[in-house]
Amino acid sequence: MNILGISAYYHDSAAALLQAGRLTAAAQEERFSRQKHDPRFPSRAIQFCLENAQLSLENIDYVVFYDKPLLKFERLLETYLAYAPRGFSSFLQSMPIWLKEKLYLKTVLRRELRQFQTNSKSPLPRLLFTEHHQAHAASAFYPSPFQTAAILCLDGVGEWATTSAWLGTEQQMIPQWHINFPHSLGLLYSAFTYFAGFKVNSGEYKLMGLAPYGQPRYVQTILDNLLDLKEDGSFRLNLDYFNYTVGLTMTHARFEHLFDGPPRSPESPVTQREMDLACSIQAVTEEVILRLVRTLYQELRVKQLCLAGGVALNCVANGRILREGPFESLWIQPAAGDAGGALGAAYSVWHEYLKQPKISIFSPISDLKTTSYQGQEGSVDHMQGSYLGPKSSQAAIRGYLEQIGAPYHSFSETELVAQVAQLLADGQVVGWFQGRMEFGPRALGNRSILADPRSPKMQSTLNLKIKYRESFRPFAPSILAERVGDYFDLNCSSPYMLLVAYVKESWRLSLNKEQQSLFGLEKLHIPHSHFPAVTHLDYSARIQTVHQSTNLRYYALLKQFEVLTGCPMLVNTSFNVRGEPLVCTPREAYQCFMRTEMDYLVLENCVLSKQQQPRWSEKESWQQTFPLD
């Protein structure tokens, strides 16, 4: 039984393939098209999934889409009617698209799928649709290690739901309650993202990273004016301050009066106001989520919690759920946003439409609060470390490098790990490309840029000379799973980089009176721990635990780095520059390497030194054509 899940036409389109209930491939379209958050039909992602499994479309039993377009159209029409005549310009922009394509999505999908047929006369697979939050919930529960769990989904909006709660059992997911549009925690956070001058649906990470530089001086303003928050976590927004229901912007003029002026212009300097806004909305978001989590526990009385939806990527809030929430165990879908909807839609067909039971693949052996039991008895959730994308063969890599005349050295496995660990210990920045590409927004050691976390200058170097992004953006540590408790206040694994925890007191550096008196970005270059490149202003870090069972080579590299330096962690940031998706192919990795100030590039077993490379011409490089492999 082969089930192809698809998400598309909003942002982060993707495809995922289940074979006999086992997840074998998943990828976002942006990685192939090179258009970040690409919303178009995921043709290349589908092609990858089919080729990876050596299938044609004729071998697919079901194709399932992660949304129900008629319900979404109903919500749009009811919203426009409720606010008429306001929103007429938005109505005129959206309706032609709906009347031409989105309203007839079944026809559009069938037309798009025909490109994958090997025989034009053969029938297409049966086409099904899940609801948006149903797909989110399925993506959270069915790949998780739990047989029974509470499920909480938080995002901007699906068809109607913006927040939903479910009970997951071995047989099914049972809906509990939901909060509907226009009342949305995700859209509230996005409104502040927009107001702070960042791009909605991609800049929310920046807002979260900026929060520790500010003071929560707007918290009460938000609670008094924007949000009617109840003790049980339910909420309603005061729509007098927002414009997203009917307009083309997120906020209304009243929002500007409330928060001391107009929105920050993109790319203009970040001021203390934006830092305080980020700090305030982050604090409010965490409070809402914690109240919802406590309510869900009181209602269901189960020990495990699963999270999905774009808000579940807020790893600071996730850390607080783990530390302060009532649940014993927590699991978060690594592709929690809309891309994961493709995966969840496929799981929903397998388990709910076809009535296949959820099968446990592990035996719980720990009472610790945990996001995963990985590293203790092998791979124990169904995500395979989220390494679900394409990989490149050693032969294809060598062929590409020889074709472009790029000098390289090839090493055995043992030699490679020793060589790269030494380069990192010497302060070099290394592009690290190996194995299958990650599914979801995080680089997890296969499409990563690596560096030494002990360097006090590394954060600035990576932000300004390699990533070309805002200087305040923090970097994450990858750490050996068995050593995480020695360095951070975390007693569990975090394989998908979705938890923030604090550096242990013994590794922190004390600030003098002068340093303590600084405000905002003045604190940026002050080391806060013995690992300044991965320690944020508040002594926190977004942690990835690395497990031998899911990424042997990356684990071995960390082990060797520890042998050389005594430090079992590395800086791990995604292999891309600002505005571009993660690299997918050796060609893209080489181009990113040459366009930045990285020192070395590792393509599987090939190591390239920047100093040895031929003259680089951006124009010539993009005119050349090479196989995507």
Account of the 3D structure:
This protein is an alpha/beta fold and 629 residues long. It has 3 domains: 1-66 and 68-129 and 338-360, ATPase, nucleotide binding domain (Nucleotidyltransferase, domain 5, 2-Layer Sandwich); 179-328, 2-Layer Sandwich (Nucleotidyltransferase, domain 5); 394-623, DHBP synthase. The protein contains 21 helices and 21 strands. The strands form 4 sheets. Strands 13-21-20-14-15-19-16-18-17 form a 9-stranded mixed sheet, sandwiched between helices. Strands 3-2-1-4-5 form a 5-stranded mixed sheet. A 5-stranded mixed sheet has the order 8-7-6-11-12, with helices on both faces. Strand 9 (227-229) and strand 10 (235-237) form a beta hairpin. Helix 6 (132-141) packs across helix 13 (339-353), helix 8 (204-210) crosses helix 11 and helix 15 (413-425) packs across helix 19 (552-565). The longest helix has 29 residues, at 272-300. The chain is globular, with a radius of gyration of 24 Å. The two termini are 28 Å apart.
